Amino acid sequence: xxxxxxxxxxxxxxxxxxxxxxxxxxxxxxxxxxxxxxxxxxxxxxxxxxxxxxxxxxxxxxxxxxxxxxxxxxxxxxxxxxxxxxxxxxxxxxxxxxxxxxxxxxxxxxxxxxxxxxxxxxxxxxxxxxxxxxxxxxxxxxxxxxxxxxxxxxxxxxxxxxxxxxxxxxxxxxxxxxxxxxxxxxxxxxxxxxxxxxxxxxxxxxxxxxxxxxxxxxxxxxxxxxxxxxxxxxxxxxxxxxxxxxxxxxxxxxxxxxxxxxxxxxxxxxxxxxxxxxxxxxxxxxxxxxxxxxxxxxxxxxxxxxxxxxxxxxxxxxxxxxxxxxxxxxxxxxxxxxxxxxxxxxxxxxxxxxxxxxxxxxxxxxxxxxxxxxxxxxxxxxxxxxxxxxxxxxxxxxxxxxx
Length: 403
Prior knowledge:
Strands 2-1-3-7-8-10 form a six-stranded mixed β-sheet, with helices on both faces. The chain has a six-stranded mixed β-sheet with strand order 15-16-20-17-19-18, with no helix packed on it. A five-stranded antiparallel β-sheet has the order 21-14-13-12-22. A hairpin with a 6-residue loop joins strand 4 and strand 5 (99-101). Helices cover 24% and strands 27% of the residues. By secondary structure, it is of the alpha+beta class.
């Protein structure tokens, strides 16, 4: 499974149209956008910086909305994700059949005059250097404003066919003139409400990351059970495998590979300003090393072969208060290599390497090896209590450009 996109190099644009002059209002859309942004900003789920998660609500100018998407698409980094979300009325231009995302002043008879052509979003995303692109459309499809579209038997397919983009995942719900879009008394539209539920609650027994395909299947099942129209997912180049957020349910079960930072007010002196990589977490407890501990010279008695592999100057980092007389080797595998025996994966290509291996047998396997003296240890349930209390917080930092 791919790793979660780097939030520091990603861009999100959340577009919502709640108030209309010529169409029914969709007040739930405003909360859709606000709470989806809050979920994506949450470090426990993804942690994209707030200045990289732009919300555009009730903007009347198609040019302004298009510019926001275009600028975001152009500024995604090589490890980032471009995510564009729209909630509101979706209309089909009767003149050419193109999809129009309705903005507040949009008139159903001439949607192209004040609506946002989907083609603008498609072009911006297609021209982006982002390696992963996700488009989510929560459109009401406005059947009463365009009666001929309401007569179609598969409106979700019709919208998806018009909106497909290369190298992306398109997740779309396009109900045709149904009140289920925004059920009375509920805070969200039906589709986004289920999307938020899956993102926040996660999937018990699922993988550590929730891909678009997994999210789609969960949302589809929930909406079908309620008698609502089933959403559609379209993908190119395995776009459905794009991880969107961490699995909140799995996170409670296993924090292996997570990076935790100590709260500045933490009473434990050993945790002062600590950034800790969790190497193991299971029912028996957890183990981790401090990534930002002080550097020390490697003892002279350390094996010469491994000393050469680590590089000069040979240093060891203070990994924690337990067993400082031993060493833990953290290693990053080169892309395309296979893990050797006595290598335990921690996160992606990162893992713990046994120093009992002859270094010459793996000299081409690893990009680098780092040594730690000592570690942090927690008994059953202890690490969870630290996280729940806020003494340790999940983060998306990638110290020293390691991963």
